[in-house]
Amino acid sequence: MGVALAYIGLKPPVSRPPVPPKAEPVSATDQFGMKPDRLTVEIETIKRGDTFSDLLSPFTVGEDAIAQIVEMAKPVFDIRKLQPGKDLHVYHTGDSLRQVAMAVYEADPTRYVVFDFGDSLHARVVEREVRTSSRSISGSIQNSLYETLEDLRVDPFLAVRMSEVYAWQIDFGRLQVGDKFTVAFEENYVDGKRIGLGRVLASKFTHGQKHFEAFLFAEGEREEYFDSEGNSLRKAFLIAPVEYKRISSRYSGRRFHPVQKRYKAHLGTDYAANPGTPIHATGDGTVTDARYGRANGNFVKIRHNGTYSTQYLHMSKIKGGIRPGTPVRQGDVIGYVGSTGLAQGPHVCYRFWKNGRQVDHLREDLPSVDPLPEAAMADFEIHRDRWRAHLAAQEPVLSRGATAASLAPGI
Ligand SMILES: [Zn+2]
User: Fold this and answer.
1) Which residue range is the domain that position 145 belongs to?
2) pLDDT digits (tens, 9 = 90+) for 100-149
3) What is the CA(342)–ligand 1 centre distance, in A?
4) What region, left, alpha or beta, does residue 297 occupy, with left being phi > 0 and alpha being psi -120 to 50 degrees?
5) Within 10 A of 335 (CB to CB), how many other CB atoms are there?
6) Alpha carbon of 249 to ligand 1 centroid (Å)
């Protein structure tokens, strides 16, 4: 990434000839690459409702010049987008006149806008060079993933990134003490300062007794996460249809029914959630049933393909437009949590059919979408093995939740 992406006006960026040694001290280059010698810099913090001219009103600058420079900036920066709380750095003559030479607005850590009121008015956006480097960490969860990341001095937002990578495999709301992870990820830097996270590159997560590997790999047009066998981590089904508080009843061949007061099979998984919480289709498909039933209450059934169907019971309300024949995509809202029909409290009873038989979806090895084609496997395996070896090297030798950090191999 280079400097000076967009350029308006005739004047090149400020560059001064080498300064010969002088008695008086010369100010160093500031954070905008300016050498404000002979100029004074004042910082105006933008308040709600401040216009560009308001901010420049304590200084000397013509209204015409302001109007012109705002117009010139238009293709690269909309002056109405000055954000309250951010700063406008005003470079002025420092004498009683306080004539404005330049104003700089830092739009975000990666770019700033220079308004040059010099001989030829111009405005330009300067993109700072963002350097990305990869880093790897290993940790084990004592309280929460968030706290573990903070202890490792990593942006805790990495927890969100990891939950996205494993959205189809691991419920990050239910991590357990002792769950372990090793993850390689990118961090972005500007001028040596960390400004945010990049992508997760590879990871191994141990949740309970199970290991989940994830490798970011580009194949054709797509770049996504694959498990060790080249299956996409994206599954045809979400792990749960709702953001839930707890599983109030698991699938079982025999349980005591709290309302009917007798033993019978429970061929579904009950997710207790607040009334009104949106219920999502767990996979792509077509609605085959959407109505009220005496036991099921308001319910929706979806046929996903020749093998799988799912059903969602006890809704307070079926979403408008959801009726037999409606196509749905994974994640679409189809209704809202309630307790209609034979239900003790607000929950979704989620039922899952495979080849016409009801099964426990939590015990099913659910199908992936779009695995890697055979032709890409050789490349993928090289990529995977390299990252595997790298991640293994990060894992602590002592099982004390120790940490390791280093640079990733040149990938
Ligand atoms: Zn149920």
Assistant:
1) 131-235+371-394
2) 999 999 998 899 999 999 888 889 999 999 999 999 999 999 989 999 99
3) 9
4) left
5) 26
6) 7
